[in-house]
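Quick one: structure tokens for this chain, please?
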Amino acid sequence: MGAFAQDPYFSQYTSSPMLINPCFAGYRYGNCDIRLTSNYRNQWATITTPYVTQMVSVDVRIGQDENNDERNWFGLGGYVYNQTAGDGNLQNFKASFLPVYNLGLNKENTTFLSGGINIGFVNRSVDFNKLVFEDQWNGSGFSGSPSTDPLSTESFFYLDMSAGMIFTFKIKDELRCHIGTSMDHINMPKETFYDFGNNRKEQVMNFHAGVFGEVERNLFLNLETWYHSQVGSPEYNEIIFGADLSYALNDDNVSLYSGLWYRWNRVIIPVVGLDVSGWRMLFSYDASVSGLQPAGSFEISLSKTFNCKPCVFCDPYNDVRKYQKKPKRRKR
């Protein structure tokens, strides 16, 4: 007998990019050195006990001067997430540390390659007292007698490793692109509550790409796609793609945000939000287009950037999307 499950994820994956690829820790294009983010997801509350996922993350950029002239630099990141699911209070807790090295590939520093790893420590737990099993059925109801299923522990720990690379290039000041790949569960850790078998986390490959450009003055467009597939079982895959628009108001400290995303054959995801002086809040809702029509999920993310410097063009992964107006030339 087999079963298939998903790793914790957020539909607002551009607000939790380190879950997709560790190289997004301290990512290059942006005007801020520190980013703090929190995410909350409530999934399928209308049809069952909801899956609730919470996450807090921080990442920093190290080794660049205020003009971003250093060709090579480091990124450091860390996050903690906790997912609770089902009547048995099944919990999935993970704490990760992400070191990244970024290598500039040309003198102008418009093309660079990033490589990083994710070192994660995972705890899985469940409350057996809140669950019922087949051998507890007495023909008319479930008895209170203990189950004879060979359950060995209600809590266990393991090490989970991931690695990734991203290639980024700037075509011009108004257009930047990236393409990346990563592999999750490289060490295929053992994961089971039973005292037999050798159930292991299967490796998962991620591929992602994006284009970020200025449509017109103060209006920015971000196009993204993300595909992931279980190694050895390509039929278990998922793809999500979509676009964000952000508009910077005249005071340069406020940006309006909207987006529309699609998880293939599953959900449509509208997103709205607001950025005020580096504080960005986004709200999204997963509207099901699959057989689970009553099902829906909502997410909220809140992020804040620190140690920011003036910039003309900022990257969506660094949250601030201001348009810094150029000074007017005086007439002679």
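The radius of gyration is 22 Å.
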